[in-house]
Amino acid sequence: MSASMQRDAPKPSRRTGSGLKAITEYGPIASLARKARKLDALDRALRQTLPSPLREQVRFANLQDGRLIFLAPSSALAARLRLLQAQILSTARAVGTYANSVTVKVAPPSTGRHRAGSVKTAFASRRLSPESRRGLNHRPRITGTVP
Question: Is the pTM of this model over 0.85?
């Protein structure tokens, strides 16, 4: 090969590895991703042992200070889940998670009308009674200037 051809040839890359790394491999995001994967695996393990109506409707939310925290869409389902506390704790121990209690919080699912980020609140879509509307229309007017 001539000297000019050797100069024009691309230099081999000195990098080793597969290129860019996922953001989930760095600092706080890496620990957050690890925790999310652990909680997801625990969610699957715990909900598998629940009876069918509960399994589809409740969600495992967190493990905090030895408490398994679940979310239920109604108080009735929350009460049913609390009755299964011994079974849930036994399953958690079987998969290597230490927990000493189960907390169930009622968190109704969001409806299409009131999605997160929506400006409307639960009260914004309610209609006023005719008496309330008349009272608002006939309220005393404040006159004068504000300094």
Answer: no
Q: Is 130 helix (H, G, I), strand (E, B) or coil?
A: helix
72 DSSP β-pair partners: 106
> CA 49, CA 134: separation in Å to the nearest integer?
56
Count CB-CB contacts under 10 A for residue 102: 19
The radius of gyration of the chain's CA atoms, rounded to the nearest angstrom, is 29
Contact yes or no for 54/77 (Cβ under 8 A): yes
Closest CA to 24 of 37, 41, 15: 37
CA distances to 12, 17, 25, 30, 91 from 21, in Å:
21, 9, 7, 11, 36
Beta bridge partners of 137: none
* pLDDT tens digits, one per residue of 60-74: 999 999 999 999 999
